[in-house]
Design a protein that fits this description.
By secondary structure, this protein is of the alpha/beta class. It is built from 9 helices and 10 strands. Strands 2-1-3-4-6-5-7-8 form an 8-stranded mixed sheet, sandwiched between helices. α6 links the parallel β7 and β8. α5 crosses α6.
Length: 281
């Protein structure tokens, strides 16, 4: 697959050298391999308190060191726009990347301007990429024949890394068809659905989906939020619903600090669990 970043160059070179988040060295503290002190632990996803660990007190200062890069990936012969953030100097790399999808009224820019999730996660030591899905944002001219296969191809392009995927609302129409296929389920290490569409389909495969899943929705989202939560509750490694108080459908906009705290704790637990099928080589 080719990539465009001002000039035509290889995808892995762009994201490794320019965006700086997909090369192997990005996903560990130093050598590109899991650290020797990483000891797998058992995580009870339904009993864990995902607000237990506070965000670092110097997070805002660290976020100032995150620079945003932009690029275009070529899928199905069409350009797909993405944005990424570098991990600031002096911040330990977590060994994990996060893929940010978006809802129908939003784009990758939402995670920068409307809620600073991209900068927050990069400042916490994670590789981060936010993509404009086909038909939206700066990828609005693109269309793909199979949304699930498109997302699977995108994830496979991330230097073999299994990301944690955040999928609000409309983006459920991409990730749920992807996860419906057994061969795609080991592509990701964690899933954060925020009131996604299409969850009725989960009934056909959910009990076989072992991916750790942080269920999030807004307290005022009594339609899609509550229905999707009910549908996703069958997942064996789903958390208890994490309800953002007073929040609407795009719940992360109304409760950004709580949202980021949930992500911080969940990603740390995913790394601690260190599921063998999700180990990053």
């Amino acid at each position: 697959m080719s990539i465009t970043y001002s000039i035509n160059i290889n995808w892995k070179i762009v994201v490794g050298v320019v965006a700086g988040i997909f090369v192997i060295s990005m996903f560990s503290s130093s050598s590109g391999q899991p650290r020797s002190d990483d000891v797998p632990v058992s995580v009870d996803w339904k009993e864990t308190n995902f607000l237990e660990q506070d965000l670092p007190s110097n997070l805002n200062e660290l976020m100032k060191g995150v620079e945003i890069s932009q690029g275009e990936a070529i899928f199905y012969g069409q350009s797909i726009f993405f944005q990424s953030g570098n991990i600031p100097g002096g911040v330990e790399r977590s060994g994990r990347t996060v893929l940010l999808l978006h809802g129908a009224a939003f784009s990758s820019q939402t995670w920068i301007d409307r809620v600073p999730t991209l900068r927050t996660l990069a400042a916490l030591g994670h590789g981060v990429i936010a993509v404009d899905l086909p038909g939206f944002g700066k990828s609005r001219q693109a269309s793909v024949p199979d949304k699930g296969e498109f997302l699977a191809r995108l994830i496979r392009s991330l230097s073999g890394k299994q990301p944690v995927v955040v999928s609000p609302s409309m983006s459920g129409s991409f990730i749920i068809p992807m996860l419906a296929k057994p061969e795609n389920r080991n592509l990701i290490s964690g899933w954060v659905p925020v009131a996604p569409v299409g969850t009725s389909q989960v009934a056909t495969f959910g009990k076989d989906l072992k991916t750790p899943t942080l269920i999030v929705y807004g307290e005022r989202d009594t339609g899609l939020g509550t229905q999707s939560t009910k549908d996703l509750s069958i997942l064996p490694n789903a958390t208890l619903p994490q309800v953002l108080p007073g929040a609407g459908h795009p719940a992360y906009l109304d409760q950004p600090e709580r949202w980021h705290k949930l992500l911080h704790n969940f990603i740390n637990k995913v790394n601690m669990a260190n599921f063998p099928q999700f180990m990053e080589a």
